[in-house]
Every structure is written in structure tokens, then in C-alpha cells.
Amino acid sequence: MKAVRIYNSGGITADLLFAPQVGRDTGDLGDFPNPSPPVFDLNLRGKGWIVWPNREGEGFTLDSVYPALKKHDCLESGLSLSWPATAVCQGCAFFDSDDRGRLFHLEVDLEGRHRDIRIFSSSPEEVVIRFSGQPGVWSLQPLERKVPDRKLQGQYRRQSTFFHDYPLQFQLGLIGPDGESEIGKDEGFHVIGRVARLIAEKFGPFKQTPVLHLFGYGAGHDRMYPDYSPAERFGGEAGFKAGIQAAQRAGFHVSCYLNGRIMDVQCRDRFSELDAGICNRADVDGNSVPLIENYQERTFFVMDPNYQPWLDELYEQALMLQRLGADAVQIDQVAGRAAAVPFGAVWGRGYKSLICRLQAAGLKVWVQGVSDYYPADWFEMTYRDVNILAGGILRGGNPFGETDLSLLKPLGIQGQFLVPRSKLDVLGCSDLPFILDVLGDRGKLPLYGREYLAELASIEYPL
What is the pLDDT of residue 160? Predict the structure, then answer.
């Protein structure tokens, strides 16, 4: 392995380790090849602060990685992120004891090819971040860390008018994963307007238009995707349209849920034209079998986001919701779970084209996760506890430290950031544009019913 030192100051050193490349030109990083090798390591030693691209960014001390990997039994596998899915960018930042450092970053790959970012540690004094995927041109830029003022954050949170200056989002689930609902037969989709009016009475007047986000309005949450037709038992399309209009009269924009990643296995026959878009994997005997994932104890096929009929189906479902009055749609899981293709294979381009197509049709689009690749109107920051899948795939949470937004401004990511209430302290002194998700991280689905209404009543506002 060849080593190129790119930083040595304030107690931290940074080296790039890679196999020598024959016939490759070198770039602005000394003898580091340009374009880069398909696999190489960034080796960090000493004491310092690291921000790796876990969702919107996670910051931690260098010596915190080894004990965290040991705790989660991941010393051998490390923990991995996937770009353009669970990683905000292809890169990271590191800072010395004086909060001076560097942003090590790959320019956005316009094809959205899958890159793996995996972190290892063999001791509390060393961290290795391994980048795998399509070769590209990397840059190293000076960056100073803005250390959060915890005392100031607390003052912001206590100011009674602070959150009146920012838009709010309220989630409202109508039918649960088992088809269950507390909506009465005579209420139907009228509850949408009722909830909107209750929220407006308690939390208004609003300086900026709030968002009422609807999910579970078809067969139920995580049921029968990609069929999002409003439930006939609650009034069908006509009733859903009337409910949306009632919420809009109460002063809300209305957003509706779609899932960009999965198709319910029970829908395979109904959507036979999508069969060729099901992703495959090799079983223990080497045979190709459909790739499945389980959510809410139901089984789903993982779909190829570059399969045009799948994108067309999602587009048509979104247009149906727009005809019924929706102002925006969420495309869930776009930037929320690892790509299901090998390193270097195209994954994100189809999602990106779908987002642009929906925006051209007049819809706002938001996605789960934060990414420098997707041109969403707003991005949902993670609210999950630490969740690690087989092979060290990081599904959610901050295993090493805390949310750190140092990467977002240098990357120039446009749009707003949807923030769960649990992260108010992180954003208290940030000037990033954000939307506060009032019911987004209760630990369970915010489904309409007695508990939902009690939760709304219990929230002290201003927050």
C-alpha cells in the first residue's frame, strides 16, 4: 500500500492509503491518483473531531470509534454507509484541537453510482474510513468547525416566540399496518379537516404555512404498495379530496406518502408489468432470487429505481394524489436505506429523475435522509435510535457521537431540513432553513385516535 499524508496539525494526522496505480496521473493531493482508485482508505490518527456523512452528518471524537464498534460487535466488519442513499455526500471532515481542519470530498457523480463508505478502528488512537466505488476526482478544502454553544441553544429553546418563526409539519396516519383504524364509519376522511382545525386552534396563528402530512390513507401504512388509492371505506377519492380541501381551508399545505423502494409481494400479480423491476440476489446455492425486505411484519420486493415502468407507476400515483388536492409528496426510503446494487453500479439516477419530473408537474417533493445528489424541496433528518443490520450496515442513529451539520453548508445543499423535536438542541443556533416535525419521533406511528389526540393536547407550545 502507498501512503500520502494530507494533514498533520494540532494533534491529528491524515493519510490516504491505496494500491499503487500504474499509468494514473496525480492530482492536487500529492501522489494520490486522479481519478482515484476504486478502493482506498483515509487513515486518521491522534486526537481530533471527525464528521462522517451519516445521514445529515455525525460528529464524534476520534477515540470514540473503537469502543463503539466493540460495543456493537463490529470491529471486524466496521460500519457502513451507502451513497447516494444513507450518506449525505462522498467524503468527510476532520478537525484538530484548534477546530481547524479539512473537508475531504468527491464531487457529485451525476449518474448516482453506488459508493460504500465504511469506518473501522483497531485502537482508540486510529480511525480508518474506507471509500469503495466509482473512481472520481477528490478535493481537500480548509474548513473551520463551529462548535455549538450549548448554553445559547438552551436559551433559544426557551424563547417563547422562537419556533413561531419556522414552518411546522404535523404527521397524521389514518390506517395502520394491519388495516386497523380508530376512524368511525361516519367520520371517514372528514377527520383530516377536523385534525387540521384542532392543530390550527392550538398552534396558530402561523407565520409560515404549516404542512399536514398524510400516510396510511389507502390499504394502510406499509400495505399494498404501490397502490395508494384512498380507502373506499372512508369515502374513496371523493372523500379524500374533501378532507384535503378542508385542511387547506384551515391554512395547511397537504403532503401525501409514497414509498420509492418497495412493492408489497401481495401486489405482484396486480402489477405484473413491474415484475422485471424487482431486484435480485444470489441465494446460498448461487441461484438468483428476488430481494425482499420486511416492514411492519409484511414482506416487500425491493425495486430497481432505474426501471422505467416502476418510476412511471410512482409518477402516476403522485399525479392521482395531486388531482385530489395534494401539494406535496414524500418519496420514502430514497435516501434512507442502502443501495441494493454492487459498488459502482447506478442506483440514484432514477430517483433523481422522478423527483425532477414531479417538481415539473407542480408538486413539492421531500425524501427521507439528506443527500447532496437528490434535488428535493426538503429532507427528513434521522430520528432513529442506533440500528445496525447484518454486515455492519448502519440503518439509523448515531453510534459514535452526535448530529453535526458541518458538512451541509460547504456542500451547498439546497432545500429545507425536516427536523424532529428530539433534535431541537442541535439546531438551536443554526441558520439553516428548517421545518419542525412536531409528531415525527414519538417512537410509534402517529395514527389518528385517542392517543393521537391526547398527544396533540399534551404538547406544550411554544415548544
Answer: 43
Residues contacting residue 449 through CB under 8 Å, at least 6 positions apart: 181, 182
Taken in order 168, 174, 180, 183, the sign of the CA dihedral is positive
Give the type of residue at 295.
Y
Q: CB–CB of 169/441 below 8 Å?
A: no
Task: Tell me the pairing of strands 253-259 and 211-215.
Answer: parallel
Give the Cα-Cα-Cα angle 26, 27, 33 (nearest 5 degrees): 45
Question: Where do the CATH 3.20.20.80 domains begin and end in the chain?
Answer: 151-458
- What is the chain's alpha carbon radius of gyration, rounded to the nearest angstrom? 23
Q: Tell me if residue 138 falls in helix, strand or coil.
A: strand
Nearest residue to 299 via CA among 227, 368, 224: 224
Is residue 404 within 8 Å of 58, Cβ to Cβ?
A: yes
Cα–Cα dist 355/363, whole Å: 9
Q: What is the DSSP string of 226-248?
A: T--PPPGGGTHHHHHHHHHHHHH
What is the pLDDT averaged over residues 377-398? 91
Residue listed under C-alpha cell 496521473: 25
- Biggest alpha carbon distance in the chain? 74
Nearest to 338, CA basis, from 80, 121, 141: 80
Q: Which overall architecture, per CATH, does domain 151-458 show?
A: Alpha-Beta Barrel (3.20)
Q: CA-to-CA distance for 419 and 379, rounded, in angstroms?
A: 9
Q: Which of the residue ranges 43-47, 164-168, 204-208, 294-298 has the most confident prediction, judged by mean pLDDT?
A: 43-47
Task: Using the CB atoms, write b or e for 121-147: b if 16+ within 10 Å.
Answer: beeeebbbbbbbbbbbebebeebebee
Please report which confidence band the pLDDT of residue 26 belongs to, taking 50, 70 and 90 as the band edges.
low
Q: Residue 298: helix, strand or coil by DSSP?
A: strand
Distance CA 365, CA 354 (A): 10
Alpha-carbon distance 263 to 273, whole Å? 12
CA distance 207 to 230: 31
